[in-house]
Automatic annotation (TrEMBL):
Keyword set, alphabetical order: Fatty acid metabolism, Isomerase, Lipid degradation, Lipid metabolism, Lyase, Multifunctional enzyme, NAD, Oxidoreductase, Peroxisome
InterPro entries noted in UniProt: 3-OHacyl-CoA_DH_NAD-bd, 3HC_DH_C, 6-PGluconate_DH-like_C_sf, ClpP/crotonase-like_dom_sf, Enoyl-CoA_hydra/iso, NAD(P)-bd_dom_sf
Known catalytic reactions: a (3S)-3-hydroxyacyl-CoA + NAD(+) = a 3-oxoacyl-CoA + NADH + H(+)
Annotated signal peptide: none
Pathway, per record: Lipid metabolism; fatty acid beta-oxidation
Stretches assigned to the 3-hydroxyacyl-CoA dehydrogenase NAD binding domain: 296-472
Higher taxonomy: Bacteria, Bacillati, Actinomycetota, Actinomycetes, Mycobacteriales
Domain spans labelled 3-hydroxyacyl-CoA dehydrogenase C-terminal: 477-569, 605-683
Major localisation: other
Protein name per the record: 3-hydroxyacyl-CoA dehydrogenase NAD-binding domain-containing protein
UniProt source species: Rhodococcus olei
Amino acid sequence: MSTQYSVAGSVAIIRLDNPPVNGLGQSVRAGIVRDLSRALDTPDVEAIVLAGTDGVFSAGADIREFGTSNAGAEPSLHAVIEALEDSPKPVVAAIEGTCFGGGLELALATHHRVATAASRVGLPEVKLGLVPGAGGTQRLPRVLDVRTAAEMITGGAPRTARALAADPRQRLFDRVVEADAVAAAIEFAREVAGRGVRTRVRDLAVDPGGATVLGALRAQLTARSRGFAAPLLALDLVEKAIAALFDVGLAAEGAAFRELVGGVQSAALRHAFFAERAARRVPGLAPDTPIRDVRQVAVVGAGTMGVGIAMTFVDAGIPVTVLETSQEALDRGLATIRRNYQSQVDKGKLAAIVLEQRMALLTPSVDYAALADVDLVIEAVFEDMEVKRAVFTRLDAVTKPGAILATNTSTLDVDQIAALTGRPGDVLGMHFFSPANVMALLEIVRAGRTSDDVLATALAVAQRIGKTAVVSGVCDGFIGNRMLARYRRAAQLMLEAGATPERIDSAIEGFGYAMGPFRMADLAGGDIGWAVRKRRYAEDPDMPRDVLSDTLCEMGRFGQKTGAGWYDYEPGRRAAIPSPVVAEMLADFRRQWDIRSVEISDEEIVQRLVFALVDEGARILDEGIALRASDIDVVYLAGYGFPRHRGGPMFHADTVGLDRVEDAVRRFDVDGRGPAPLLARLAAEGGTFR
Ligand code: 3H9
């Protein structure tokens, strides 16, 4: 059973019952139609309530059905919607919890809607590379002001019923209640049944003046689209809702939905959705693995990373002890946190009272004894094994048994760090990305002896603090930075061969990246990478030199912060201006090494960069550092700005065809290693990474 039917006096109640989110799969659709006709055939029933179960209305169409024969199986969502809308007895939707996508479209087909104030309604289809396909683009602008409807349809972000109901013009909700929308809907149904009221959304007029607000939105979406189709198509449909008859708009919506659902962008975004959820599951980790209680956290080090990590926990309401070596460093760290929150207050994103509540969750200390009772420590000190040794030895001595000791290292060996303690089972890596309170990605580094419950706890903590977690094994750079090194090297080699920073950046931005490698390097600042390189050159004299980056740094060009890097910058501005100094430096380099500049096409630039990621990803997968190819995609989507509508590097490689990828990697072979063995094997077999 995917619906439940009951009758309370003159009101029939149809409940969607398809846990966990009441996806509108075929059996739910059939259940609604069956229950509706039962209600219509029962003379004593005068009105019908359509509700969810366990506080959830519906998260929309069952995404797993897309691309399967069930997606088109009768009754279609359109048929269900028509049946509800044409019901001669009034239908009232009782909205609680999530009401997304097809779920909202279902609610818009009923004659009245009662919602709890906290329920969240939205049309997130664009996030799956789609447009709403069951009337959402035509009905929502009829019940909300056009700007709000258009923002929801083209952006996909949900709103609470409370926020939407604050606008007196809205006709989405007939009643908004604090709790129990089902009871309120039954009461409402009794009232309207007596009066025979029955309002069809499709018959309402759209504000004809609404079109005037859409120009600015179109300009914004165009600037941001970078080849991603759905938002602009969704906006076309909102314009149709204003300018065309309902049925004409509905037909256009159906055509756009069908086109998109079969396309590669939607396939990529659906892949990303399921990949993020799959990443939470670790093969071999029993679902009933105990989770340790994490109530009190400590962060060691109040530099940039430590500050961001502390804010991440405080934002989630978890108290944090911040440890530093000197009062001065501690004061500086705490002042940075306050300043960061204050800037959110100034922008109206945070209430002043919340700022104080968050600051109150922080306990600054210069004494390791303050960590005696914490459940989880995250070390974010200088990247040097001797410094880590000092910290972990102290942590091992002062923290209670069972406390988890995590390192935020991005370059050092977590096995070696674990071995510094007498409890290696309690040690793992939690690699945050800067700024840690903003970036979604968290690499959880499972060391050789990390115990299962410590890993399971870190995954649970990641969910609590709203991070997208991916488990990585131990290797230099883990998943993300190890691949990034190949990407950067590919960029550098193209510079040497004749390309310019602006040409490389613009090619990869055309592929969908928000920023190419050189604009990104200028934003991040070149000095830190230079310091790391110098240390590594000293450790390994045979290591290939990044001559161009080193020369740039020797010239004091560290990027935006020094007003010059790979590009020039006007004082106080962020716009990257191609630099004659850099052009001269490149020309000098090529003269010195007798390199005849070659022209590299945009297509080849993209291939060299992206396939370098894919090739390293294949090695990482083969070595078991990543558990699955989709985890690598999640790392790149959540942490490295890979265009989401391309699904991640490994998914993208699958869509290109691994034989073509392998062939290109072979042609570009720069280090004489040839393609990764796994890539070569899959290409020969006609296989994919999935
Ligand atoms: C649509 O409606 C098209 C129509 O316009 C037209 C059609 C003709 N289907 O995220 P969670 C699974 S397009 C199937 O971990 P949360 C999810 O995979 C649809 N499965 O929980 C996970 O499974 P597992 C538009 C779905 O509490 C489990 O449910 N709707 C769907 O953090 C729990 O999910 C959307 O795009 C689904 N629709 O968040 C909504 N939704 O346990 C997408 C979830 O096996 N969904 N699952 O890993 C969401 O935004 C979040 O999942 C939601 C819950 C907020 C609902």
